[in-house]
Amino acid sequence: MTGERPADENVVAALEVDLHDTLKYSLLGPSLTKSGQDNVDQTKVSEIIYNASKGSKFFNHEEYRDKNLTQKIERILGKKKQLEKLDLASDRRKADDCIAELELARDLSQTLVHIDCDAFYAAVEELDRPELKDVPFSVGKGVLTTCNYHARKFGCRSGMAGFVAKKLCPQLIQLPLNFDKYTSKAQEVREIIVEYDPRFESASIDEAYLNITGYCEKHDISAEDAVQQLRREVHEKTKITISAGIAANAKLAKICSNQNKPNGQFLLPSDRNAIMAFMSDLPTRKVNGIGRVFERELDAVGVKTCGDIYAYRQYLSKLFGEKSFFFLMQCYLGLGRTNVQPAEEYERKSVGTESTFRDMNDPVELRDKLRATAEELEKDMLRTKFKGRTLVLKIKLHTYEVLTRQIIPPKAVYLKEDLYNFAVPMLAKLEQDFPGMRLRLMGLRCTHLVSMKKPDTMSFFGFKRKATGPLDTGGSVPSSPQKRKADALSTDEGQWEQWPDELLFEEAERQEREDELQELETLSQEIDKRRHHGKEVVPNPTPKKGAAEDPTEDEWWDCPICMRPQATDEKAFNGHIDLCLSRQTIKDAVQETGETPTTKPLKRPSTASEKGKNNRSGAGGDPKQKRLCFG
DNA sequence: CATTTTAAT
DNA sequence: CTGCATTAAAATG
């Protein structure tokens, strides 16, 4: 395409390429590793994407982020240069010790499978409209959620903007989403895979992890044959093709399911040498937690494959942090988790909603939007039966810059009125800090959740996870035992145990205590209203690690009244509370002193405080402020 | 050092 | 040029 231009323009174009090739690579999108692109000329594709998006606000923001990343990489490289001068023997030893320890714990006894439906949404649409089979089409309007393999030949990909995809493939047909259709189809698939592992884990609507060790043993069948059979069965019964990876752990299985996509499977033998060889020349990007940013950072220091990690092991901790170091060690060794558990058994940490809309800067309109967002969140909170101790407001400016602000309301919240009322001050503060700000997205999220599930339904009351799973908080036990017949059946396999009556009693006590704490919170809010004329928000007395958590998991709790750490022993703790309450009740505090009874109030979040008004975003010389342009 | 905010997946 | 959730690192006071 450059051949048509005059020579000097070619020079300019070449310069642009040099300046922006990292950006172009980034613009290729997050799903570069996904299949169906092998025969596509990525250079040509990125050129088209680049030209299609050039000049847009989105592009400018990507450019900005790309520059930041380039700078960050320069810092990393500088640091590496420094490190090269030093003696890193101890770091190398640390890495070697880590490797030795990990190696010792390597578990090759399990057979894990990752299955992934091929172009799932598109496949479901094709079932309804077979004529789509021979033409390129995508599902999703503004952004492609997925597209069929015809479209992929043109460079179209999930996550790509619709208009960009149209540039790559003008014939592309874009279908709207039919989420219900995909959900029910996914359910059909799940009904089949549950026979292979009753405790399979849904990773998303079209992905699942299975542990088929038991199945293979029971049916005296090889893993490969079992998966072959599973895939055939799924195809016969649902007309959906799936790809699968078979390996010793979840990380490897996930990588393997991509190897022979679509409609294929790949087995990585559970053999240390085979695994090491497999990882040795595997590009880092193929690993699940490594995306385009980390890939570039690793590439910059010389790590292109998982095998390369070893040679740089003495640098990684200092360059990327302890967690990344540990993660990379596991990548090098091809290690991953071998346990698989139903997704419902994972403890939820937040509930939130967000939406994108046409640019908006009218304060009244913004408040309307906030109210609507609060209403949406209330629905989700009621559905999931949670309250949140922390409320997070997220906005995206018209420039695509994202900002979040959070507060700790005086009580756990979930009602739309509360959500709105406690969020409005954050919005107001943002409007103050960024006068005339224009938004394209608004979101609300509750974190530090408190369950509202009452432990009074047999659906969960009689059972408790035995393993040290996240379910130890009585409230977050899965509420949907109806479909997983295995849950009820596997009691004798040691997966579940009946709660002893004693524990049941303690659970009831725990619930009572939680309710008490809730009352305290409400009262302390009352105090606060009187003290601050309803204007300000004061933190609630909260046990250090959250009142809803199982005390046996913590070393100690803060007494919500005197704030002193207390033993986790329930009797002792309750005894102390009684004492504390009798000595100094909340109501006394209100009537006599007007002070909250907490001798050591929790720190107030800056967003809700007066002294927070001069924090960085408001400061005149803040580079962030300059960067933002409001029209 | 604890908490808040950002950034990445 | 989505939406939802989780996690880690950076920034902040």
Helix content: 40-55%
Principal-axis shape? globular
Looking at the overall shape, the CATH architecture of the domain at 112-267 is: 2-Layer Sandwich
CATH fold naming of the domain at 112-267: Alpha-Beta Plaits
Radius of gyration of CA atoms, rounded to a whole number = 28 Å
Question: Strand content of the residues, in percent?
Answer: 5-15%
End-to-end distance: 37 Å
Let me know the CATH homologous superfamily of the domain at 112-267.
Reverse transcriptase/Diguanylate cyclase domain
Query: What is the CATH class name of the domain at 112-267?
Result: Alpha Beta
- Biggest beta sheet summary: 5 strands, mixed
Low-confidence stretches: 1-15, 457-506, 523-566, 573-631
Average pLDDT taken over every residue: 78
Question: How many helices in DSSP terms?
Answer: 24
Compute the number of strand runs: 16
Strand order of the largest sheet: 5-6-1-7-8
Structural class: alpha+beta
What can you see in these coordinates?
The protein is of the alpha+beta class and 631 residues long. The relative contact order is 0.07. It contains 24 helices and 16 strands. The chain has helices spanning 7-27, 42-53, 57-85, 89-104, 120-128, 149-152, 162-168, 179-193, 213-219, 223-238, 250-257, 272-280, 292-301, 308-311, 313-320, 322-333, 363-384, 416-433, 458-461, 485-489, 501-532, 570-583, 586-593, 623-627, and strands spanning 112-117, 137-139, 146-147, 173-175, 201-204, 207-211, 242-247, 265-267, 350-360, 386-397, 402-407, 439-451, 463-465, 496-498, 556-558, 565-567. Residues 1-15, 457-506, 523-566 and 573-631 have low confidence and may be disordered. The strands form five sheets. The protein has a five-stranded mixed sheet with strand order 5-6-1-7-8. Strands 9-12-10-11 form a four-stranded antiparallel sheet, with helices on one face. Helix 1 crosses helix 3, helix 3 (57-85) runs parallel beside helix 13 (292-301) and helix 15 (313-320) packs antiparallel against helix 16. Among the domains are: 2-63, no CATH class; 112-267, Reverse transcriptase/Diguanylate cyclase domain (Alpha-Beta Plaits, 2-Layer Sandwich); 344-451, 2-Layer Sandwich (Dna Ligase, domain 1). The structure holds a DNA duplex (9 and 13 nucleotides).
